[in-house]
Structures are given as C-alpha cells and as structure tokens.
Write a structure and sequence with these properties.
CATH class of the largest domain: Mainly Beta
CATH architecture of the largest domain: Beta Barrel
Helix content: 25-40%
Structural class: alpha+beta
Low-confidence stretches: 1-26
Number of strands: 23
Strand content: 35-45%
Mean pLDDT: 84
Distance between the termini: 47 Å
Length: about 375
C-alpha cells in the first residue's frame, strides 16, 4: 500500500504533461532519408545553405596521358650492318655532339660493300672501253649498230651499278680501323638517354629486317604530353589552349604548357582524339613514359550547378542534402536526395542534370557532416 501511494504522484505527473510525450514522439518521426535539426545543432555543424542557381561551369577539360619526347629532338639509333660490338664510347647521361662515336662494330658487311665498290669501278672501266671501241668501229663502218647499242647498254648498266655501290659505301663511310669496322655515330646532338647494347653483343642490321634500337639520343629540355580527348570536348579545345600538367612523382608541382596540336581523327575503340601539350622542361624533371594528368583551360558556360562540396558519393549513388522546410516541432528538415550531375567538366561547379530544381535550398557546406548523422 505504501509503494502504491508513492507511485500515484508520478503517474499523475506523466498524465499532466502530454506535450512532452508528443515532443518525444515527434523527435522519432523523421523518415530514413531526412534529418531534423534544431538551430543550435545547425550552428554547431556550421552548415551553409544556398539556393540552386545558374553558375559558371566548365573552364577546364581534364584528361590523362603520358610524357613523351619531342619527336624532332630524339633519335633512335640502330646499326645498318650486322656484326659484333667491339667498343662502346657513349654512356647513358653523356652529352654528345652530332657525329660523335657511340660504338664500333666489327662487321663483314663493311668489307663486302667496299669490295662491291671496287668491282663496280673495274666493270665501269671495262664497259667504257668497249663502248668507245665499238663507237670507233661504227664510225668507220667496220662495226654493226647492234654491237654499238649492246656496248652502250652495258656501259649504262655499269654506271648505274657504280652509283648504287657508291651510295651504299657512303652510308658506311664511318669505317675505321680496317675495312671490317663500322663506327656508329650520333645523328643529332643531345643526351644519351638509353643504351641497349654491351661490348661483344651480336647485332643485326636494320636493313636485314632484324635491327633493334641500340642507343636513344635526345633532348629533354622540351617534352610533350600526349593525352586523350573525349569526343564531347573536341569543340572546346583549340590549338593554343593553355594546359597545366601534373605527374605522380611531383604531386605539389604544376607544369604549364600549350596544346599545340589536336588530332583530326578519333580512335574507333576509345572514341577519343589525341591532344599534344608542349612543355618546357629545363630541370629535366619530366621523364618520357611518365603518366600525367592535364587540365586544359576552355571557355566557361552558365548552367544550374552544384558546388563540388555539396555532392556526396555513397557507393554507386550521387547524393545532395536539400532543405525542405520545418518539422511540427520547429526543427529544420534536410532531405538526402539522389541527384545526377555532369562531372566531365572541370571547375568548382558541376552542372545538374536532374534531381534538384532551380531555387531549392541545397547544403553547400557541411553535407559530409549531415551524411554522418543520418
């Protein structure tokens, strides 16, 4: 009886405060996709809400590619003769002038070429004498026109053979140390970027169909970035467009350059066109075959757009928080809503495709905090 008398006042108090029970009940009412916050919670989260309105979008086209040589400043050196490397005179990193020795190759091809040249000289001398003799006989009516024409044809063939042998000998005119040696020389000035041969190695001549690159000589003070440009961006990127390139090796550095060429054809598989960015590389920090990202500056457009800070990626869905009014107890309602935006355009704002209408109030700062509270 004493316990019952003690509980009666408490039960009477709960019955006398129906508003408090209703308030607690209302706090448990938000749908799974909504948050209801008091003003002090909003201030603590430092939320910023702005109406959706047209914004300048684009301004950048983002793409990826790789660093390559300026192909006018690089030479891939192969041997024109088959033989054995007997000496290496150029090492990676060494600067060479045009005509400097890279390697010496002992090759029987060199001896054969100069032997053919001597034979061609001898053949030309013989056919020339025969032609003159037949011409003299024909002039005094002691020889036939048929013999003269045959001698003239042989003489012309000998001259052609001598010219061929001379051109081939000129190609191998770097021979030193005997008729069997060929000196491989630098075709352009620059730095020995790569060496792919060792002393004693057997090499195949490039004209025999089995030649391989022995040396790479080039300049790295200017490089190219060959990037892929999507079909939708072809009309926006022009020759002379400024670009900013970044590479993984230097994440805090931006290399500035110019897009000096845009391909007129598309790859049938990837539906992309090549764009070439030319960059100065005085410190030689950019190396060929580095992967790179390029941002190309283009004209901006105006469209309904969300700032990047308002867009959330949850799994395979893209979301944003929209303020949709107040709850019965006076709290501000925020709805997490699926949206579709175009993320191909670079820049601070992303054009809205669907999901939010103009004028709706969107959480532009603090959306991540709301996502963690939901």
């Amino acid at each position: 009886m004493k316990r019952l008398l003690l509980l009666l006042p408490c039960l009477a108090g709960l019955a006398a405060c129906p508003g408090r029970n209703e308030q607690r009940r209302s706090q448990a009412e938000p749908p799974l996709t909504e948050l209801w916050l008091w003003q002090d919670q909003i201030r603590a989260a430092k939320l910023i809400v702005e109406p959706l309105a047209p914004q300048p979008v684009g301004g950048l086209v983002l793409t990826s590619g790789r660093v390559t040589f300026d192909d006018l400043k690089v030479a891939h050196v192969m041997s024109p003769v088959t033989g054995r490397v007997v000496r290496i005179d150029a090492q990676p990193g060494q600067r060479v002038k045009k005509g400097d020795t890279l390697a010496v190759i002992e090759s029987p091809d060199v001896g054969s070429v100069f032997s053919d040249l001597q034979k061609a000289h001898a053949e030309l001398t013989s056919t020339e004498k025969d032609f003159r003799r037949q011409k003299e006989l024909f002039d005094v009516h002691a020889g036939s026109q048929r013999d003269l024409e045959a001698a003239q044809g042989n003489y012309a063939k000998s001259r052609a053979e001598l010219q061929r042998a001379m051109r081939k000998a000129q190609l191998l005119s770097g021979g030193r140390g005997g008729s069997q040696s060929y000196t491989l020389r630098a075709p352009i000035p620059g730095e020995v970027v790569a060496r792919n041969v060792n002393p004693g190695a057997e090499v195949q001549g490039q004209y025999s169909g089995g030649g391989v690159e022995l040396f790479t000589v080039g300049e790295l003070d200017t490089v190219w970035v060959m990037a892929d440009l999507f079909e939708m961006d072809l009309g926006r990127v022009k020759q002379g467009t400024e670009c900013v390139v970044k590479v993984v090796a230097y994440p805090k550095r931006a290399f500035k350059g110019i897009a000096d060429w845009v391909s007129d054809t598309l790859d049938a598989t990837t539906r992309t066109a090549k764009v070439r960015c030319k960059l100065d590389n005085p410190d030689r920090d950019l190396k060929p075959e580095m992967y790179a990202t390029a941002a190309l500056a283009v004209d901006r457009q105006r469209a309904l757009a969300l700032p990047r800070s308002a867009v959330l990626h949850l799994g395979d869905q893209t979301m944003a928080f929209v303020e949709i009014g107040t709850s019965p107890d006076g709290r501000v309602r925020y709805e997490r809503r699926p949206v579709s935006v175009s993320e191909e355009m670079g820049g601070e704002y992303l054009p809205v495709i669907r999901g939010i209408s103009a004028g709706e109030r969107v959480v532009t700062v603090g959306a991540v905090i709301l996502s963690g509270m939901l």
